[in-house]
Design a protein that fits this description.
Blueprint: H1 2-16, H2 21-44, H3 51-60, H4 62-81, H5 88-94
């Protein structure tokens, strides 16, 4: 979970740094790689947790994951209002 959270924070940081088409295009490749890493982590996680593990995840990780997810949604919405700076690469990366 720690690695997943770190990757999501990195994605959010990437999106936050986008200010024009050049930075949008540059961020797209890193975004794709991060999303692939995140998917691999999620796919490798156990499908079922014990009750104790579930409580631990809920208490320790869920609040931060929720915070990062909300921040991600806000950043994507802001980029959308700017038409993703006309970056096809960024648009494609966000839709993968």
């Amino acid at each position: 979970m720690k690695k997943l959270i770190a990757l999501q924070q990195g994605v959010n940081d990437l999106l936050e740094d986008i200010k024009d088409k050049a930075s949008a295009d540059a961020a797209a490749e890193s975004l794709v790689k991060s999303k692939q890493e995140m998917k691999a982590i999620v796919d490798g996680m156990p499908k079922e947790l014990t009750e104790e593990e579930n409580v631990h995840v809920e208490q320790v990780y869920t609040p931060r994951v929720d915070e990062l997810a909300a921040e991600y949604a806000k950043l994507v919405a802001e980029l959308k209002t700017k038409n993703f700076y006309d970056s096809e690469a960024l648009t494609k990366a966000l839709n993968q």
